[in-house]
Amino acid sequence: MNDAAPHPPDRDDDELARLDLTALLRHGLTAGPGTRRTALFGDGAAAAAVILDRLGTEPRSVAFLADTVRAGGLAHAAALPEPLPRREAAVLVRDWLRTGTELAAGTSADDTAATWLHAVATIIELKHLTRARHRRV
User: Fold this and answer.
1) Closest CA relative to residue 102, chosen from 73, 137, 123, 75
2) pLDDT at site 134
3) Distance CA 27, CA 31 (A)
4) Which of 48, 68, 100, 114 has its CA 20 to 30 A from that of 106?
5) What letter does residue 7 receive in the DSSP assignment?
6) By C-alpha distance, which of 14, 26, 42 is closest to 96?
7) CA–CA dist 94, 22 (Å, integer)
8) Could you give the angle at the alpha carbon of 24 between the alpha carbons of 20 and 27, nearest 5°?
9) H helices of 18-106, where?
10) CA nearest 94: which of 103, 83, 106?
């Protein structure tokens, strides 16, 4: 992954869902401020939210996982038998967690991953609120 500018903010959900989140995590979790970190927390968080939302994942489940990562680390969370309630989401997120674990970057990567997961949870929650608002209109 090069340090090219992040993708423009007008991407649609299908395009976001096709992003390589493993690569974004591998290159963004340990990156300092800059384009790689921006890509992870921008398009990467939005893409993860799209994918998990499509799998029916509740934002509180992702927030709980983020707190687990912050408390126990990526390796602990990756070893959980069910990091998220739905099987498809659990398998996918476990792969993301393992990617972070493979970096062997310690608590810095753990904290960044936890913050990223909280961002993903927030985006899922906003998607839910937006859909609810549109249903009421």
Assistant:
1) 75
2) 80
3) 6
4) 48
5) P
6) 26
7) 11
8) 135
9) 21-28, 35-39, 45-54, 59-72, 74-78, 87-102
10) 83
Task: Supply 46's token pair.
Answer: 């939005």
Closest CA to 76 of 60, 62, 52, 94: 94
Tokens 């979790």 belong to residue: 29
Give me the pLDDT at residue 5, please.
Answer: 39
Nearest residue to 41 via CA among 116, 122, 109, 113: 116
Cα–Cα dist 19/6, whole Å: 12
Instruction: Give the predicted TM-score (pTM) of the model.
Output: 0.87
Eight-state DSSP code of residue 67: H
10-residue stretch averages of pLDDT, the chain, 137 residues long: 41 86 94 93 96 95 98 96 94 95 90 97 94 80
Instruction: Please tell me the number of Cα atoms within 13 Å of 103 on its side-chain side.
Output: 25
Among all chains, which residue has been given the structure tokens 């970057």?
A: 105
- Rounded distance between C-alpha atoms, residue 108 and residue 18, angstroms: 27
Quote the CA–CA distance of 27 and 34 in Å, as a whole number.
11
